[in-house]
Amino acid sequence: MANSKRDYPDLHEHLKELDKQGLLLTIDRPIDKDAEMHPLVRWQYVGGIAEHERKAFLFTNVVDGLGRKYKFPVVVGAFAGNRAIYGVGMRSPIEDIQTRWDKAIANPVAPRIVDKAACQEVVIEGAALQGEGNGLDSLPIPVSTPGFDSAPTLTATNVITKDPETGIQNHGTYRAALKANDRLVVRMATRVGGAGGYRHYLKHQKRGDKFMPCAIVLGAPPCVAFVAPMKLPIDLDEIGVAGGVAGGPINMVRAKTVDLMVPAEAEIVIEGLIDTELLEPEGPFGESHGHVALEEFNMPMRVTAITHRKNAIVASYISQVTPSESSTIKRVSYEPMFLTHLRNTLGIRGVKRVTLHERMTALRRIAIVTVEKGTPRTEVWRALAGATSFKADCGKICIAVSEDIDPENSDSIFWALAFRMNPATDLQVLEHRSKGHGPEREHENQQEDATLLMDATMKEDLPPLALPRQEYMERAKQVWEELGLPKLRPQSPWFGSELGDWLPQWEAAAKRAAEGRYLENGLASARLQRAGLKPETSYRPDEQP
After folding, report:
1. How many Cα atoms are found within 13 Å in the side-chain-facing hemisphere of 72?
2. Nearest alpha carbon to residue 160 among 80, 61, 259, 45
3. In a 10 Å sphere around its CB, with 0-12 CB exposed, 13-18 middle and 19+ buried, how is residue 434 labelled?
4. Is CB count within 10 Å lower at the N or C end of the chain?
């Protein structure tokens, strides 16, 4: 079937839309992929730039550490440099994305098989893969963590494998380190549950198969790229879910040298065979848990073909220490999943929001559950238990906070812990948790960790946060800018509100003081002078006769 009609944008069309919305930076000067590229993009995550100001970077003049120039451009951050970019890829407002995923998972759309595909406009195989500058060596794959990584590494991948028993394909985002013109080493997660590709690997081993067919896709259409890092149910064909997201079938074509189907509009496809008997050292490589993963034995793959579009673009994720592009992809989908689980599955209606802490902790280790005022204490603890048990590798530390706490601001969370939590009654430690994603720790039991639950909600009404009201802060900000002072980057919380224990009488007195009428307040308080009291005795005008 040659019909290639589609209901979704490819990467080229996606980049045009990003450019239209001011979300793409095009860099035409020479950039060294080995020493400059990822550090340059990294600055927008560690340089105090607000999340909404981050961009995708398109590098059109790519060189390597030896000065070699590449014909392919490289794009970094094009899938989820920030949430707005992710929303463009999903063709959906951020607040509607979880609904889109829910519908797509419940209503997958079978792919359309085509016999001609853009991803196979150029086919490189056999002897053409050999020699310097050929095969994998022709691709401008960046070094992700210069100074620590031992190889250029594929990061923005859809790694496709197939269950040898059921024939169901799996798309996973796994890293792959370049080792030679026709060899790379793939790292598939082996932790509890295991990655889908790793489960296929074990089945091939059990069958006695020497090799496992594999196709590594770079630059898939966004709706296809997004399914790979999602933790979808085992044996659910991700390409059908991608079709559900797109609202129509995804075009797929048979790979040239392996028995797998690949996305027809992909930029580049690397086909090959993973050895099921031999392993090869891979790494060091900067990991998302914030440490460098040291050398480990992982799966060597012999490349049998590289196919690509004539005008292919190499896509790369900015990953490693979070926040990053890869953590944004997970966060936008994970947080609504947690909220739906707590509110709908467990029926805890007092939960208003679930926030997975991103900076440095890779979303998996710390979860903040926001609950509305008046939520019974039993429901707060049920919410904490539900959050920590929803995903095996998420929620090692779960903290419940009230709605006045900004879960995006760690200082606000520390404030709640400092003044609203009693360690004797508001803290629980649960044993027997899987170690999960993180650096290897030789001095500890490698199999178990523990869980920490903390209730840092307001147990009673407390006075407001002692910052000027928003109207006064905004007025002062205008003066600041008129004076030409350094650009402000407001850090939440930057103003106070009347939430909590705050009476109308105090509100009126504060308004008079801000208007310069404090003497009126002094006259009022003078009439209330009393004898026989101890200093610091509280006074509440609402309790007076």
Report:
1. 24
2. 259
3. middle
4. C
